[in-house]
Amino acid sequence: MKKIILASGTALMLSMCAAQAQDKTLTISVYAFAQDEFKELVYTPFEAKCGCKLVVETGNSVERLAKMEANKASPVIDLAIVSMADALSAARKDLVQKIDTSKVPNVDKLYDIAKDPNGDGMSVGVNFYATSIVYRTDKMKIDSWADLLKDGVVDHVAFPNVTTNQGPPALYMLGKAIGKDTPDLSGAIEALGEKKDEIVTFYVKSSQLVQLMQQEEIWAAPIGRFSWAPFTKLDLPLAWATPKEGQTGGMNVLIVPKNGKNEDLALQFMDFWLSTDVQKALAEKLVDSPTNKEVKVSEEVANNITYGDETAKSLQLIPSAVTLDNRDKWLSEWNAKVGQ
């Protein structure tokens, strides 16, 4: 009888363990971009590895942070991907906790700029992108960001609106080039305002630039590296500029909400996402540019993403505090000097 009872108890414990594994759920909040590829390369493989279920919520950063703030006392997500500036904003609102990097060993494989992007231990960089200038090599030469405002060039330029992701970084580098790189970007905005009637357009969507370039309405435009691939398909002599002031760009980071219910599982997923194999797979599908410096890709792939130690070191990223503290000033100054 004892053997039967013991056997029944063992079976019950195994059944409970199996049920617990099935009930183990990780909820993440991400951008809607390339979700089919992320499911194939990241989500499904992780579920197989952890024996858990991954619940994926999508949306923009504003929605993501608002939801985190509304559920501060009892978080409903376990991990989120946001911009550097949004990560600092979340930290200032006490919505996130320090990342225990002892549980995320792949952090050691990241480029230095991605290990602790905001210098507060609250985030790690999962992907980044360069911002520079795509231009017609047969029409002009771009050695400096200031070249965009030169006579004979400026009237064939598209410049990103300040409200876009590319706007402030491009203004930041323009300010550096003209020796007016104050945090409020006023010098760069003023210089741009003086040429506003000559500039072809202040674009909001980078997708419109390919057609403008093809129609030869523009010869140059600041863009993110993730927008570069369609330009390479045009039968035009185009190049990616390497201005003497450097390139700018942006970085997306991973954060863990404070008082989350699944911190260990969230950190396990973070480590998986930062692994060499996963970051390489995402790079080869041109989904993300890797922050893991061990990733090696073909020349063809490298030419279409932000890649390599030299590129990582050259990126002049706007400090997150500068973005948060000056965002309203940028918009006000832009509206006054450039308009809509």
TrEMBL record:
SUPFAM superfamilies, alphabetized: Periplasmic binding protein-like II
GO biological process, one term: thiamine transport
Superkingdom in the source lineage: Bacteria
Matches recorded under Gene3D superfamilies: Periplasmic binding protein-like II
MF GO annotations: thiamine binding; thiamine pyrophosphate binding
GO cellular component, one term: outer membrane-bounded periplasmic space
Signal peptide feature range: 1-21
Keywords, ordered alphabetically: Periplasm, Signal
Protein name as catalogued: ABC transporter substrate-binding protein
Organism: Agrobacterium bohemicum
Lineage summary: Bacteria, Pseudomonadati, Pseudomonadota, Alphaproteobacteria, Hyphomicrobiales
